Amino acid sequence: MNWVQENKSLAGILGVMIAGILGLGAWLYLSYSEYSTSMEDWNKNNDSIASLKGKKVFPSKENSEAREAEVSAYGDKVDLLRSALLSEKVQQPVKPMSQTEFQAKLKERATAVVQMAKSADIALPADFALGFADYTNNVPRSPEVAAELGVHLEVMERLITTLLQSGVKSVELFERTKLPNEDRPVEPKPTAANRKPAEKPKKKDNKSKSKRTAITEEQAAEPVLDRYPVKMIVTTDQTPFQNIVNTLCDPVKMPHFLVVRLVRVENERQDGPSREEITRKKNPEVSIEQSSDPTAPGGAAASKVAPDAVTIMGEEKLKVYLEVDYVRFRKPASATEEATEVSSTAATVNP
Q1: Torsion sign across C-alpha atoms 36, 38, 41, 47
Q2: Contact assessment for residue 57 and residue 67, using Cβ atoms and an 8 Å cutoff
Q3: How far apart are CA 330 and CA 64, in angstroms?
Q4: Distances in Å between the alpha carbon of 267 and those of 10, 169, 234, 264?
């Protein structure tokens, strides 16, 4: 008591601190209790919602209509996404092209790329043909394959141009994945005797338009896209490597749908610089030699001063392995079948 009377100011400060600590503790306890209660309520509601979703829908008319409405709305969203991915802004369409036209286009583009690399002093693989070395002397097996290869040729040219414009030192590997039907034998065209008469298209009821047909397991298992990996090995500096990755990931600079799937970077030096190398850089052979220069003012001795700082790492070249996927989205199977039926009908009507 005497100490409190003698140190009233200090005692007051201690009292305020003790009261504040007690108040803060009470507030934390109440907040934690409220938080625990809220978490318990959340977990209960979440479990109840999960159990309700896991139960089977009662087969009533209202539930059936609601289910069909949900499936139809989901199908509309899927169709909207598919139409956006199949648009010409995202995926370039396949344009008709003959076999000789593709070969001429390939030789023209390959020559332009080789000349571009020579002017920039960039080394390319021997007999570089944008990954289409098989077609420098041979033509594709069919016009359909040539048309598809024409789209891939545009992608390969854009990729190698990106590497050259970024300023790489050399390109050691540039390999593309072949099309599934690229090496298949040409299928014989159906003769008039083997053609079946075209069936008349069935009229669709108005009720069938409002209801979306259920997707079978086989249709759901079909892939919606095709991946064509492109493998590249380049020798470059750090800044061009960053430019390459930024360009491949920028939809404005790269109109094709590309995905950088695998990157491996290997430094040309596997160990750090030794002290001798650092000393040699800092004090080269011509460093600090006194010489009497009569032209120096006052006859003072001129000296060659060593640099005050040297770069010991960060200027090494990089060996980069890139694996980029060129993605092509597939059209719906129903649309493909309808197009096939239309073409077969036209072939039957006009043999």
Answers
A1: negative
A2: yes
A3: 31
A4: 65, 14, 12, 10
Six token digits for residue 172: 């050691």
Least Cα distance to 177 among 33, 328, 21, 309 occurs for 328
Considering only residues 229 and 209, tell me which one the structure prediction assigns the higher pLDDT. 229
Q: Is 97 helix (H, G, I), strand (E, B) or coil?
A: coil
Which of 261, 333, 341, 342 is CA-nearest to residue 82? 333
Q: What is the pTM for the complete model shown?
A: 0.63
Determine the 3-state secondary structure of 203 from DSSP.
coil
Q: Are 106 and 130 in contact (CB under 8 A)?
A: yes
* Residue at token pair 């896209």: 225
Gyration radius (Cα) of the chain, Å:
36
Q: In this predicted model, what pLDDT tens digit does every residue of 58-113 receive, in sequence order? A: 778 888 888 888 888 988 888 888 888 888 878 888 999 999 999 999 999 999 99
- Residues 317-343 pLDDT 10s: 899 999 999 999 988 765 445 444 434
**Domain 99-182+220-270+314-343 carries which CATH code?**
3.30.70.60
Domain boundaries, the chain: 99-182+220-270+314-343
* CA-based torsion, 120, 124, 128, 129: positive or negative: negative
Evaluate if residue 283 carries a pLDDT over 80: no
